[in-house]
Amino acid sequence: MITVKDLTKRYARNTAVDHISFEVAKGQIVGFLGPNGAGKTTTMRMLTGFLSPTSGGATVAGYDVLEQPLEVKKRIGYLPETPPLYPEMETGEYLTFVGQLKGLRGAELRRRVDYVCDRCAVADVKNKLLGKLSKGYRQRVGLAQAVIHNPDVLILDEPTAGLDPKQINETRDLIKSLGGDHTIILSTHILPEVEQTCEQVLIINKGKLVATDSVHNLQNRARGAESVLVEVSGRDGNLDFVAVQRRLEQVAGVSRVVAKQRQENRNSFEVESRKGFVRGDLARAVVESGWDLNELRPTAMSLEEIFLQLTGTDTAAKEEEVAVTGASK
Amino acid sequence: MRNILIIWRKELRSYFSSPIAYLLLTMFALIFGFFFWNSLGYFVLMGMESQMRGQMMPMNLNEMVIRPLLSNVGVVGLFFIPMITMRLFAEEKRSGTIELLATSPIRDIEVIIGKWLAALSLYACMLLVAAVNFAFLFKYGKPDWKPLLIGYLGLLLQAGALLAIGTFISTLTKNQIIAGAATFGICLLLWVLEWVSGYETSTWAQVLAYMSIITHFESFAKGVLDSKDAIFYVTVIFLGLFFTARSMESLRWRS
Questions:
Q1: ipTM of the complex
Q2: Is A55's Cβ below 8 Å from some Cβ in B?
Q3: Which of A279, B58, B88, B122 has the most CB atoms less than 10 A away?
């Protein structure tokens, strides 16, 4: 549906997007992930025809964005970072205007306006001025505007930015429900969003594509070795820390035991092991030695850690965490 | 064509759903009403004087009322035009709605012409306000209506040229005030360029005077349709809209 080849955008002093290539199949929801200023918005703007690439190109639904921009624009619905709303217009009036711009008319136009109002839950503010709407409604009107002409491709730039948690959930569900009929690219720097809504992830950093894979594969890739968090406490009020660590190390399959937290009577350890299930053995080892097992849970590497690992940013504390899990591979 | 109409309707709507259109129309009605009252008062005085002297002076409404009034409208227009055009693109760029227009299946030139036509329509509404005053002349006197019509055509052409320049300037900035101030400066300059012809006769002075937007209106105010002057205005309109299109195109390369 979307093919991007060597797409590059260079400004006077910096390169915003540097030879990016990827493909998106029909009906997929793709998450475009990267820290602020990584080039997400620029890439999206080039796909929608708002910006022209310096070199390279892209096709959307078989049409080249440079050669046939009007054909591409007919097939794309775009929600920019700030919804493009005219504060002096009413919601219904605005959606009608956008529908006309996109080439709808007559009964079809009225039908689509009603439909998107319903679908995006903005029907109750149809006669309100856009300038008076809350952030959540503005975002949804923006989404309604993007889908009004039933485009093949939806490009959403940070669709959940600035919303409250309830609105974020609603917006995510809405985007997921649109996924069946539309191919969607959405950009975000919020990781759980990608984990929840997208099937495919493109990670971009400093204008370069650093990873492209399915969410499932990325998580698996990071979970090459198993890592388990074990919290142990002593029955009689004191616990021999070193004894516990030694006992855990003796369990078959365990490669490393790292002390994570050490308090009076509670100790937690991160136990790394080869792939396979050592959790049963760990539990037995603790209980049979006469200690209490408070917690035992596998620690999968979240997308967040993968992300940091690939982009190499953020705070030192997080980097350290990544280093630990990275070493366990 | 259909797309131009969509943009035209939207722009007119936003003029009239904000105070700007009403403010401009009211101010214009006040200023023009004052001019009209003044020149009519002068005309009546002249008429009485000629009666008292007992000798009939030729009294002509077209020459003595309509012609100076039309020239005045042209000058007043210079002050109003920046206020009409300053928001056209600057506001879209500031609020980000330009992204909607630029990513819709519609050509840049259709957006530009739609916006320019809407600005011209608002100016035409101002001229309609002036027409209310002129209507009194027709009720109580017998002026020739053809020169008035040609004068109106001249005003529309003159405004069209200045509006095209203002539209272009509006694409250069996100700030309405800057767009307005720059347009006002250029309008004023194009008006006073004509003054050089008062003391200079070199080729340069002639060229400068020719570029003045006001000199080309004189024939229209007289009621003469001179193709030379009409072509001047049409050329400026084309140039202005052409530069606007280039400027919009360049947005895709900068950001």
A1: 0.88
A2: no
A3: B88
